[in-house]
User: Fold this.
Amino acid sequence: MRTVLYILTTLGVIGLAFWAYRENYATQEALAETDRLHSDIREAHARLAVLRAEWAYLNRPDRLRDLADINFDRLGLLPFRPDQFGHVDEVAYPKPPELIIDNAVEVSGELEKQP
Amino acid sequence: MTRTPLRPLARILPARAAGESTEAIERENLRARHEEMRDRSRQRAEGRLLVLGLFFFCAFVTVALRMGMLATSEPVEPRASAQGAAISAARADIVDRDGRLLATNFETHALYAQPPQMVDPEAAAKGLVAIFPDMDEKKLLADFGGKRKFLWLRKKISPEQMQAVHEIGDPGLLFGPRDMRLYPNGTLAAHVLGGASFGKEGVSAAEVIGVAGVEKQFDDYLRDPANGQKPLQLSLDLTVQAAAERVLYGGMRLMNAKGATSVLMDVQTGEVISVVSLPHFDPNNRPRPATQGDQSDSPLFNRSVQGVYELGSAFKIFTAAQAVDLGLVSPSTIIDTKGPMKVGGFRIGEFRNKNYGKLSVADIIVKSSNRGTGRMALQIGAERQQEFLKKLGFFEPTGFEIVEARTGKPLLPKRWTELSAVTVSYGHGLSSSPMHLAAGYAAIANGGRLVQPTILKQHGPRLGDRVMSEGAARAARDMLRKVVTEGTASMAEVPGYAVAGKTGTADKPKPRGGYYDDKVIATFATMFPAHDPKYVLVVTLDEPVETSGDKPRRTAGWTAVPVAAEMIGRIAPLLGLRPTVEPATLADITLTSSNN
Assistant:
């Protein structure tokens, strides 16, 4: 009985040691993965910041104004003025489609005289 | 353990035989047994104490070791937590009210040299001069050949320059990462943003610190790592600011002014939507402060908050509003503006020595009569006038959140005599910044409540104390509207926006006393739309002169007013204001007397 207990305990210890060994490596791998992801995130943030800065730089009012001037022939962009506001009722309705009659029915005639 | 009997036969029997008392034997054995029991329990207690002592010892040793480890080891970021990305070392961005970037960071590199590691200092120096033409080859060689082990060469270099330095290929030329402050819109809102520079510098990082404007005012917020992802949101609107700068610049050139400033403010919240001061500068490359000459001529000078000027007739409306508020007059009360008027030994004159005769209070504002306003001021009295202007904030620097605003302290008369009351009533003798004037006009525009100008985006109105009654504010607005429809600011009429405002032309004071004849500050303070004001706009031109006529014209009506009108035409649509038809004034039925 005691021998069986010893063997079981030893086996248990070996099993736990193996489990701890594996967990240790799994943890280290997870930490390395986290580090990698963190550095990816950092890089992505930095790239995003550069892109945002570039977007803001390309959209700076001076540049847009110059572009609007250069492309005036094609786009005809002008500063927004008060007279460009409109009312909905100033927008014309589309013309109703024309009624096409191609199978005319003769509807005119003479009334028969009543006796 | 063998238990010794208390009365062992082996001793009892001989004792009985000898006729001795057996009690003594029993007592002795009992004593011996008690001693034994005492020793045992003592031993057990000692053992327990030892275990407890050991436990405490181990616990304290563990704590001490941990403390020692924490104290001696380098700090590391927690690697396993997902929170790490939220904390950023970079300075927070600054954005406008719609989240468009006004200031951000850009990763660049700094260039430094370690001469002991250099392979070929001559070639390195030659290569560096080819890349950076402003470097001096001889000086570089002297530095590289000397005793120095370390020297900074450039604080910020572009990626192209970095590549070129790489190609020199000297191991003694090294790069350190740098976060550079970038203002992508260039000169836009330069005075508000201010600028930034490096504080403490190390090889691997440098501190970015704000040197002016909001960058300095909110330095702590911007540098706090917890705010790395939370940009500072200003009340400025990028498009409105750009349009305002453009129009004001055009106006300044057209009117031959040497400087100009404009402030556009929301009358309910006090948010400053646009604030321009010309000439401006590029915060990416902030010029050095002027060491000689007049500071106010430097592009760094922020006219909108630092420039304290006598703003002239634009002040008259405060006198009229207070007089109405106190019940001294109504807009239709007739006041005699005939000269001569002498106060404290000084003659109070009108513009070009005109004589307007008898005028109603509304017409005094419309025609901008100095004597009329002065008479109202005398009715109000110096003390009440002071109190009113103090409530409107004309005695202290504005609370506008940029560092320069603190220096814009209004200049007040040393002694507030009757003469001061009269001159202040038409805007002379009291110098204040255009921002003060905008805040004062906002109080009239929103129905008599004080508002504090702010550069931060607000959510909802921030109306302060009441400074005048609703009725007085309405009367003042009606007078201001009349100035545009029939008075000195006729050019300010922008169809659909019902502009109301007051012009002010003040002679510039000479540095050594007295006033210039041909240098003025022309101001136009307006609110629009007059029937339900949303915004206040103050436009001020420094030394404008309009030369299209026979004689040069300098009055605000000819200079600041057209600029302000153009500006309203440009920015009101951008603010989302639809042109509206002004509600017609009710038929002229005036309550002339009431019988209670």
DSSP finds 17 helices and 18 strands in chain B.
